Amino acid sequence: MRFVTITTPDDWHLHLRDGDVLSRTVADSARQFKRAMVMPNLVPPVTDTAMAMAYYERVMACKTNLQPLMTLYLTDHTDRQEIITAQRSGCIQAVKLYPAGVTTNANAGVTAIEKTYDVLEAMQEVNMPLLVHGEVTTAETDIFDREKYFIDEQLKPLLERFTNLKVVFEHITTQDAVEFVIQADTRVAATITPQHLLYNRNHLLSGGIKPHLYCLPILKHNHHQLALQQAAISGNPKFFLGTDSAPHARNAKENACGCAGCYSALAAIELYAQVFDQLQAMDKLEGFASHFGADYYGLHRNESTITLVKKPWQIPSQLDYADQTIIPLGAGETLDWQLA
User: Is 20 a catalytic residue?
Assistant: First the structure.
């Protein structure tokens, strides 16, 4: 196979940041994606409809073909009326749960899920999905086990209490999460990132720490990586593309307390194609990248297409990022597939 044409894909989990860097991040994503679910963990976080609409306008001012789908940042103080206002806006598609302190700009996140019950009830009433960063944050829990404990301690009880709430388990990283999503009912889905398909914790730690592979949830053992790969190519519509592309300037990654996040937006669809090709499953890429996410959110599938050509190219070693530089995921590596 020398080329493949698929329905234009969407990115169901994307960090664009704000300000001067938008010209970089929006353009990179627009190169390959039609729509993107834009995360709200700015500084300050996007906690209400007015803030989300203003952020939407800043993204649209970049004048690309990318259609931003906005989200709200759930806090202990979010009220149910804000959910109703958001749903009526026609612009906001979902609400994001960050356990307090779990990742970048999550300090304003939820300290106890019980404090959000009234909001979650409103969300299931208006059919607005909850997007979860699925990790516990207790100090005594091993960082490699935080996703598993979240499933048992938080997610299962939440779904039992709110029987009509739609939940997307973002950037899953473990076999435990794969099995949970498969066994759950149809209101539960999951996104999978390119870094968790391509790499495992050996890539992060062997021969020295690789700060540009450091993300949260952290890369796991290779048996978890294999489970994610099988989920992605399974054709199960519960699993779909979400890059979690999260840009940080090089100096913010390469220091004593490097930021968590991988910037995959430059070559995301080629990175996914690399995995699917290696697994001899290119025929499964379109469903994962272009169909299943739209179906889950009740949106139309895109009518346009993109073509990937089997033509080796090298990911740049660094990119301009406003007045700084950023190291993209896979910097310097050769990919077999290129967007035509």
Answer: no
